[in-house]
Write a structure and sequence with these properties.
This protein has 374 residues and is of the alpha+beta class. The chain contains ten helices and 16 strands.
Length: 374
């Protein structure tokens, strides 16, 4: 999968750009606050219909302009698709080959992208909801149909929570919600658990190859209904049926607590995940440098997992990674990237920080102006 061209109009500080890319490495260099990250966000927004920094659609639109437009030609195997997106302050309008797309689920998954930004180094210290969202995105990248269950679960969760806040909650209505929630919740738990099992060997391998071959770096699933955290990839995982049974049992015995708190107290919306380093919680025992390395290893492991499990190579978006690694790990990282076949977009403050043998296109970014220089 790769993008051959990208057209931008009034997206953040990128007033107008028409760019052609290599299917390999594309490097964007320039001083801070010139628009490098905005270029990555434009690609990310085309993939996911939302930015990775913006809270509102208006944040993605250039000042004093009514709307922004993005368009890209995406190649995936033998197929070629033009994706388009128009943004105003209230609406986003996606297009596929020039035709309006009325359902997001029909659009999402056409362009698959994996993003690493400096804020990702705080992954282990972030709130559980942020990690849970990142896991959902990872599962979706592998299995786009996952989005249907996730959206339906969130809709039912909102409806049941409203019913619990009623002056006199209707027990029969709550039973109906539970009958609908439980099978969907089981599928979400299964999808998350199976995904973490799939990506576990890739996280371990990437971390060892780039950062520390003597440390076992593995994902940890924190299911809200299991007493113990589950380390994946060490051969000691409990069977999925045990986790599902724990969820069903918790739901069957949650009603009184739900009524007391006026909210749902059990279910996959309370799940979390993390990383273990040699069997210990990385959040507590890993150094800051190791935590940065883990965050990046997870992203590259996601690429490897997609290629192995679905024969898909997503687009890799790397924002200013040179600022997050010491010189030794920086060198090992680029040795690894040299063997990466996924299309990669990388930003840096200096082209001297880039040690790629096969950089096909280099761009300078200055005050929102992007120019191809080699």
């Amino acid at each position: 999968m790769h993008i051959s061209s990208l057209d931008i109009l009034h997206f953040r500080n990128l007033a107008l750009a028409s760019l052609e890319f290599s299917s390999g490495f594309n490097v964007f260099y320039g001083a801070n606050a010139q628009g490098k990250s905005n270029l990555l966000e434009a690609i990310y927004t085309l993939a996911f219909l939302k930015g990775f920094r913006a809270d509102k659609l208006s944040d993605l639109i250039a000042f004093d302009t009514p709307k922004a437009q993005l368009s890209a030609v995406v190649h995936n195997g033998a197929s070629t698709i033009r994706l388009g997106l128009e943004l105003d302050t209230k609406l986003r309008r996606p297009y596929i080959d020039g035709s309006p797309c009325t359902r997001a689920r029909d659009y999402l998954g056409i362009l698959r992208a994996i993003l690493f930004v400096p804020m990702d180094v705080a992954f282990l210290q972030a709130p559980p909801m942020q990690r849970r969202t990142s896991l959902d995105r990872m599962v979706f990248n592998l299995r786009p149909a996952y989005l249907i269950d996730l959206e339906q679960y969130q809709k039912l969760q909102k409806q049941k929570s409203a019913a619990l806040r009623a002056d006199t909650p209707d027990a029969s209505l709550l039973d109906i919600y539970d009958e609908q929630l439980i099978p969907i919740g089981c599928r979400l738990i299964e999808a998350r658990y199976q995904y973490l099992k799939l990506i576990a060997p890739h996280i371990r391998q990437v971390f060892a190859a780039i950062f520390d071959q003597d440390m076992a770096c593995l994902p940890v699933y924190k299911n809200a209904n299991m007493h113990d955290e589950i380390v994946l990839g060490n051969g000691c995982e409990p069977p999925l049926e045990q986790i599902i049974d724990a969820y069903r049992h918790a739901m069957a015995n949650a009603r009184q607590r739900e009524l007391a708190r006026q909210q749902m107290v059990e279910g996959p919306h309370r799940d979390d995940w993390s990383i273990a380093l040699n069997g210990r919680p990385a959040k507590l025992y890993a150094s800051q440098g190791q935590q940065r390395a883990m965050s990046l290893a997870i992203k590259m492991a996601e690429i490897a997992c997609l290629k192995t499990e679905a024969d898909i190579e997503p687009i890799f978006l790397l924002d200013d990674i040179s600022s997050e690694l010491d010189p030794v790990r920086h060198k090992r990282l680029f040795e690894y990237l040299n063997n990466l076949t996924a299309q990669t977009f990388l930003t840096t403050t200096s082209r001297e920080h880039v040690h790629i043998d096969s950089v096909a296109r280099m761009f300078s970014v200055d005050n929102g102006c992007i120019q191809h220089v080699s």
